[in-house]
Design a protein that fits this description.
Elements lengths: L3 H7 L5 E6 L8 H7 L5 E4 L11 H12 L3 E5 L6 H13 L4 E4 L21 H12 L16 E6 L5 H14 L3 E6 L4 H14 L7 E6 L13 H8 L4 H14 L4 E5 L10 H14 L1
Parallel strand pairs: 1-2, 1-8, 2-3, 3-4, 4-5, 5-6, 6-7, 7-8
Helix pairs in contact: 2-3, 5-6, 6-7, 9-10
Amino acid sequence: MATVRERVQQQPGRPLIICDFSPPRGPDAAVLKQARALEADFICVAYNPGKSVRADSAFVAAAIARETGHQTIFNLAPRDMNKLALQSHLEGAALLGLQNVVVVKGDPFSEKEQASTRPVSELRPTELVRSIVALNAGSDYKGQRLAAPTTFCIGAALDLGKGLEQEARLAYKKVQAGADFFLAQPIFDVALVAAFQRRYRDVAGGDLTPPVFWGLQVLEKGGLAFGPVPEAMQRELDSGRPGPELALEMLERLLAVGVHTIYLVPPILRGGARNYQAAQQFLSAAKRRS
């Protein structure tokens, strides 16, 4: 299995696309058919989206890789597991042949949700990144040696909606901890790319070296969006213009400012369903343009 870091090095200057993918709510093998149809460079399996019970992201990523041949990534959050469970989980994922993991914080449980479940959050995301680096060096959280080290390529999350200053500082801490790449939540203004890079440079005293896969969401009328959608784009969507067309225009704007690493988010419908056909329409068109 290729790592994200290796593919970035092998494919400089050409679009490299990671496609977000939701695990099923049960042991539904139809998910493999959905994944097979996606022509992305990597399929990134989300971690319990919607805070709902779903098939484990690592197990789904391993099944997709085994049954479809796609390169995969799995997400992992420290919200629900302690150090022992997290590191045991990661060792199991490594045994399944997985090498790419993205550390996410995990959405907080509401007061109502905490009546039936509790967060663990023994580690912060930056601490989990550091913990995986230790596993790669062959040592567990107790300092005991492993029979063999892991070889994870470690991703971390960015969300510019939380503020450029905050995210620049967090990104710097994650780089220091050992992050190899970043996934950024979808943006709708390409000017944010340069703005974040400047802010990071101010904070870190140098450029952000690990690649950022900038979030690009394929929108759908009546669907959900990560962050506020520009009024002009929303009007076009409401008037019936296909979401993949709008996403391709956004891709062109990102390419024009030098962005070649893309985190594609397929349409999210009410109730959590995904429109992977729309995502594939985008991927197919993007492939023809590259």
